[in-house]
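hey
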């Protein structure tokens, strides 16, 4: 896959992730859309392969961070926030063990 195709794929992936992470939050969806588009437009004339690779890494890191670390919260009262976790954020809650057992 050529570099322009990889850039386009990252662009689309970021937008898909944005839609999942900020689902039902019009303001956040719009802000993320504007920021993604702005950053890609700002660097659209970049020709240096090293610089493009560096920006692709940054974009991939941002996508991973959005997907794994951002959680929505809804104000239900003036001092109450209801968290809305996505299924991919929920992991098995394994209790901590001070004395691990040795494998036989």
């Amino acid at each position: 896959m050529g570099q322009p195709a990889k850039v386009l794929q990252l662009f689309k992936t970021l937008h898909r992730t944005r839609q999942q992470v900020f689902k039902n939050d019009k303001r956040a969806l719009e802000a993320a859309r504007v920021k993604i588009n702005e950053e890609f437009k700002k660097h659209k004339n970049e020709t240096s392969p090293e610089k493009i690779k560096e920006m692709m890494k940054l974009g991939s890191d941002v996508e991973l961070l959005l997907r794994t670390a951002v959680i929505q919260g809804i104000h239900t009262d003036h001092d109450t926030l209801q968290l809305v976790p996505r299924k991919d954020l929920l992991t098995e809650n394994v209790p901590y063990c001070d004395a691990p057992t040795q494998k036989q």
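The CA atoms of residues 15 and 33 lie 7 Å apart. The chain has one domain: 3-86.
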